[in-house]
Design a protein that fits this description.
The structure holds two protein chains of two kinds.
Chain A lengths: L2 H29 L6 H14 L9 H25 L15 H12 L9 H4 L2 H31 L9 H27 L9 E14 L17 E11 L4 H10 L20 H25 L3 H27 L3 H4 L24 H14 L14 H12 L10 H21 L4 E2 L2 E2 L2 H27 L1 H5 L5 H16 L14 H30 L16 H37 L1
Antiparallel strand pairs in A: 1-2, 3-4
Chain B lengths: L1 H28 L1
Classes of the chains: A mainly alpha, B mainly alpha.
Chain lengths: 600, 30
């Protein structure tokens, strides 16, 4: 690994912590039940009056869960309806037709669940109205949902003998108007300063200097690529000398896309598009934005439970895993591709070239910023991309896939990363309790049978969805039809898609033709239950913990703020991830890596 | 076709609400 790689990763972590710490102090105040004064507080109270919400009502976990589910289901229906009606709605200068029912269904579930898996190309399918009113709104609301659940779980630890875990409507409103909106506004202006576009113009037609002839894949009536008898894609030769430059309100959507760990690009090329992520500096801000709130929530957790060291311990475990994976991904990409090296191509890093495996990467970012972005976006449950993950080396591609499969707890999604990691912390103290024969405790709360049953559901639900979903995809004709690449790489594409959907990441290996009724429906099922069948038991744990008394630590209590616990937590996360997915990974990226080096 | 997908989304909601009920029942039973 080069010195530049080490410096970039080191600088990233230092700047992240420097910004996240003060933000955490602010977030902890927002999570407090005390009324907020001033103009902002007046706006908040006006919203409650308009919606008929009693903001002082404390909700039990079941009331909290029901409100959350109804709100998100309604959101899915609204997003579905807007896509199905977009041709007749305003802000559609390209006169895009209504989106197909199956794609609308998939995208509705995708954006509500904070996944932002995109089977469509944004600039060729969605009107500005759909992008803004359907998708950008859900970018805020799905992120606020995650923060709300994290607040509820933290209260479960912080409260003593309480019946409620807070008020869902208050948590949603405060997360949106005090945390997400101000941060997004600042970041959108920063992005515009870097050259990210923000307009409502019709697309511009540019004449290119040279004509371009390209092979365009032919599709059948249902959008599935046609293949010949040998299984190769059927293409037609097309020539053009004009280029359509897509426009739109990109900066405003880009800010919340990164801050909310949503990841759904305005353009199909996502953050590799020069209008969406123009400079190395905008790229650095995008990476920071993905980790900012998840890191700040760790510190906020420590403050809210009255022991800052607990927040540092959780953040420490996340950082250890992240740094390890970032180094592997960067190293693997800097090694280059042995198949290309065998042709005599120079892939070494020098002042004149980035070196390594540059396939699918932007030259303005190079290897390090692309590998680091891929690690961050999959650690953070964001799913934005600035390089094609399908073109990563087998080991470089294994890193993002495995980070997703760990359950998106390495910083993770906004809110979801913290509550996912706290579930692993409960698992870790349970394992430690078994070793020494004591009832496990975490943050002064005894962990008993009900909490462990709920933890088991949380830990098992996503692997079940990923592995059963991938098995269905490769066992059915409809599933296999979408696979472009034969062999191990094709399996990796399917496994990545299901892992991404179930863990609400949203990035894709690409190469998989997923905008078909089969994949749109399968992935929607997986996204919904990957999100909400996870949240429900987490809220149940929060409710049951809030009812407990808080016990003082004794000499026999396992300290959960030191290096020993950080190591135990890292071990639990890694072992659960490894044991669950290694057999499947062996059939995909591992065998592909061995084949690549065996041949070359 | 639209109504099919709307019904599926309503079905998602009902399944997840059933999970809430199941977890709540488990909590009472402990």
């Amino acid at each position: 690994m080069t010195a530049q790689a080490g410096l970039t990763i080191g600088l990233f972590v230092i700047v992240l912590i420097a910004i996240a710490y003060p933000l955490a102090i602010y977030i902890a105040r927002i999570a407090d039940a005390a009324a907020i004064r001033g103009v902002a507080g007046s706006v908040e109270r006006l919203l409650y009056r308009a919606a008929g919400v009693n903001s002082r009502r404390d909700m039990s976990w079941t009331q909290y869960a029901i409100a959350l589910l109804l709100f998100n289901a309604l959101g899915a229906l609204v997003v579905f309806a807007i896509q199905r009606l977009q041709f007749w709605l305003p802000l559609n200068p390209q006169a895009f037709v209504n989106v197909s029912p199956d794609s609308s269904f998939n995208s509705a579930v995708s954006f509500v669940t904070n996944t932002n898996w995109q089977g469509y190309g944004g600039e060729s399918t969605m009107s500005y109205f759909t992008q803004m009113v359907a998708f950008a709104v859900q970018n805020f609301l799905s992120a606020a949902t995650g923060i709300s659940v994290a607040f509820a779980l933290i209260r479960g630890f912080a409260l003593r003998s309480a019946e409620g875990i807070g008020n869902f409507w208050v948590d949603m409103t405060r997360s949106t108007i005090y945390i997400l909106l101000p941060l997004s506004t600042i970041l959108a202006v920063v992005f515009m300063g870097q050259g990210v576009i923000q307009n409502f113009d019709a697309y511009k037609q540019a004449t290119t200097l040279e004509s371009l002839t390209y092979a365009n894949p032919k599709l059948d009536a249902s959008g599935v690529p046609l293949k010949d008898a040998q299984g190769n894609p059927v293409t037609e030769s097309l020539t053009t000398q004009t280029q359509s430059l897509a426009m739109g309100p990109v900066a405003s959507q880009e800010a919340i896309k990164m801050l909310g760990t949503n990841g759904g690009g305005f353009f199909n090329a996502n953050s590799s598009h020069p209008f969406e992520n123009p400079t190395p500096l905008s790229n650095f801000f995008q990476m920071l934005a993905m980790f900012l709130i998840p890191a700040a929530l760790c510190f906020a957790f420590g403050r809210m439970v009255g022991d800052s060291r607990q927040g540092w311990a959780v953040l420490g475990a996340m950082t250890v895993i992240f740094l390890f994976m970032a180094v592997i991904a960067t190293w693997a990409e800097q090694q280059g591709n042995p198949a290309i090296a065998a042709l005599g191509v120079d892939q070494t890093h020098s002042a004149l070239q980035a070196g390594g495996n540059m396939e699918g990467k932007e030259t303005r970012f190079g290897i390090v910023a692309s590998a680091l972005f891929a690690t961050i976006t999959t650690a953070a449950s964001c799913g934005a991309i600035n390089a094609v993950h399908d073109s990563l080396t087998p080991l470089g591609g294994l890193v993002p896939m495995w980070l997703i499969q760990l359950g998106e707890v390495v910083f993770g999604g906004v809110g979801s990363g913290l509550y996912g990691m706290l579930i692993f912390a409960i698992m870790a103290v349970f394992i430690a309790g078994l070793m020494i024969g004591r009832t496990p405790e975490y943050i002064g709360k005894k962990i008993e049978s009900f909490q462990m049953k709920m933890t088991a559901i949380v830990i098992l639900v996503t692997p079940f969805l990923v592995l059963v979903g991938a098995a269905i995809a490769v066992m059915t004709e409809s599933g296999r039809l979408g696979i472009f690449n034969p062999g191990a790489h094709g399996f990796s594409e399917v496994l990545y898609a299901l892992s991404s959907a179930a863990n609400n990441n949203g990035s894709a290996f690409a190469g998989l033709s997923a905008n078909t009724p089969f994949y749109n429906s399968l992935l929607a099922v997986v996204m919904w239950f990957g999100r909400f069948a996870f949240i429900v038991p987490v809220l149940a744990i929060a409710g049951s913990l809030a009812k407990k008394k808080r016990i003082e630590p004794t000499a026999g209590t396992l300290p959960t703020h030191g290096p020993l616990f950080v190591a135990l937590l890292v071990g639990t996360v890694v072992l659960v991830g490894a044991l669950t997915y290694v057999p499947a990974l062996a059939l995909g990226p591992v065998i592909e890596h061995l084949q690549l080096y065996a041949i070359h | 076709m639209d109504i099919v997908y709307v019904l599926i989304m309503v079905g998602f909601l009902l399944f997840t609400l059933a999970l809430v009920a199941g977890c709540a029942a488990l909590e009472r039973k402990k």
